[in-house]
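=== RUN LOG ===
request id: a7f3
mode: sequence -> structure
chains: 1
length: 188
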Amino acid sequence: MHQLTWYTARASGLVAWGLLLASVVWGLLLATRVLGKRPTPAWILSLHRFLGALTVAFVGVHIVAILLDTYTNFSVVNVLVPLTGTWHPLAVAFGIVAMYLLVAVEVTSLVRDRLSAKTWRTVHLLSYFLFATATLHMLTAGTDVRAIVATTAAVMLGVMVSFGSTALYLWRTEPSAPRSRRAYPAPQ
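=== RESULT ===
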């Protein structure tokens, strides 16, 4: 049983991180409309929401497997309150913070129509901090990333997403030249 829970915890954590990365990338594609009109923004939004929901599900599996595992002996308090455990407390704290950020982003997305656009956007921008925190958790608590190839790949992906998202955000928010009404033909 110990090996099953340990492998489940490891695998679900890695899958959750990969899904989070995919969700961030798809969210950027949605926000910047880099892909133009095809695929339609509704399709990208549906995929983005699906990836976010899958991330939550795999984080849930990750936490349950950790609670069931006998090697680390985590309690419910240890997985909900940062710095309360004895096994790599700072590394686990990054994961706990990432979990709360994920919940905040997902819950505000579910109730988006009840929030102001500014509130939703502010919380949703925490996704970048969420990704950084989850990556720190993976690199410092994960046993599988000790291999140099996995660590290097994770750091490079994190850097590319961080710089890429910033570049795309700045590109998207650059002021454009004002459009004249005369540029469009009058409706008939």
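=== NOTES ===
The chain has a mean pLDDT of 83.
The CA atoms of residues 67 and 126 lie 27 Å apart.
=== END ===
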